[in-house]
Amino acid sequence: MTSTDQQPLNSPFSAATTAQDVMSGHDLSGMTAVVTGGYSGLGLESTRALTAAGARVVVPARRPEAARAALRDVKGSEVVLMDLTDLDSVRSAATHIGDRIGRLDLLMAVAGVMATPERRVGPGWEAQLTANHFGHFTLACELYPLLAAAGGSRVVVNSSAGHTLTDIRWNDPHFRTGYDKWLAYGQAKTANALFAVHLDALGERDGVRAFALHPGKIITGLQREMTFQEQIDRGWVDEDGKVVDPDFKTPSQGAATGLWAATSPLLDGRGGLYLEDCEVAPVSAPDTPMDVGGVRAYATDPDSAARLWELSLAATGATPTNR
């Protein structure tokens, strides 16, 4: 994938498209998907849409009882215990999944955290990078044989326009020299985009294609670490909690781009792309405001993606995909 591939494909959909619009006419009977965060927010919308189309959906969850309660009426879904910040838990979940399925058609990395207070996990890692990137990186590596066995699978990674806040901080990825919650979020979202770029480069030989995306601005549980006043000050909601920013999407609209990435025939034979509003996003200039859209060149750079892959392998001890 090169920046020249980041060109719109004349998708029939738009920012207003819903999950139901994208999935209309799709029959996923016989297919299996794993959706992290698949029991709340955009993940829940994705699980509902995929199961409604006939897919079996496995939902890894840090709070399995809460997940089962949320998915009680979603036939075709099942829950497995997993904490993205605990890599032993991730490996255990991957083993559990592998014991029950022979192939995996779709992996959707939807779970995430945003703008959290400083937290250290594992060997002192910054928690946003761990939850958003290292956990999903490890899960994808461990599930890779199942993805390859499908002979035409897709991996869909939720990034964000927040990636425009910063490139990877190669000299201090864990913020040892001072923490900024928004830069930490931005770095994690850049990592999500670069992860998809290199996974696609490695996986193409096995029919495993990967995409990253910005789902749009949506009020979900992702904002749980922000104060209500912060959301008011940013113009997202009013003092009654009503969404007042006209650019915000509904959860169904927010899930649409991920589902489009998972199912669109327009993306057949393609991969390593960054998507938004059910379309391939153009590359944006360094000074372009975040809300204008597009993807920064550094978030699609193949050399940076390969560098992050090696850093992630060394940090996590994940099983390489070329085993």
Which shape, going by the Cα principal axes?
A: globular
Number of helices: 9
Order of helices and strands: HEHEHEHEEEHEHEHHEEEEH
Estimate what percentage of residues fall within beta strands. Answer: 5-15%
CATH homologous superfamily - what is it? NAD(P)-binding Rossmann-like Domain
Helical fraction: 25-40%
Architecture (CATH level 2) name: 3-Layer(aba) Sandwich
Spans where pLDDT lies below 50 across 5 or more residues = none
Given helix and strand content, the structural type is alpha/beta
Question: How many domains, as an integer?
Answer: 1
The number of strands is 12
User: How is the largest sheet built, in terms of strand order?
Assistant: 3-2-1-4-7-8-9-10
Largest sheet: 8 strands, mixed
Mean pLDDT comes to 93
Q: N- to C-terminal separation?
A: 23 Å
**Which radius of gyration do the C-alpha atoms yield?**
18 Å
**CATH T-level fold name:** Rossmann fold
Give structural notes:
With 323 residues, this protein is an alpha/beta fold. It has one domain: Rossmann fold. It contains nine helices and twelve strands. It has helices at residues 19-23, 41-52, 64-70, 87-98, 127-150, 181-203, 228-233, 251-263, 302-316, and strands at 32-36, 56-61, 77-81, 106-109, 120-121, 125-126, 153-158, 208-214, 273-276, 279-280, 283-284, 295-296. The protein has an eight-stranded mixed β-sheet with strand order 3-2-1-4-7-8-9-10, sandwiched between helices. The chain has a two-stranded antiparallel sheet with strand order 5-6. Strands 11-12 form a two-stranded parallel sheet. The longest helix has 24 residues, at 127-150. The two termini are 23 Å apart. The relative contact order is 0.17.
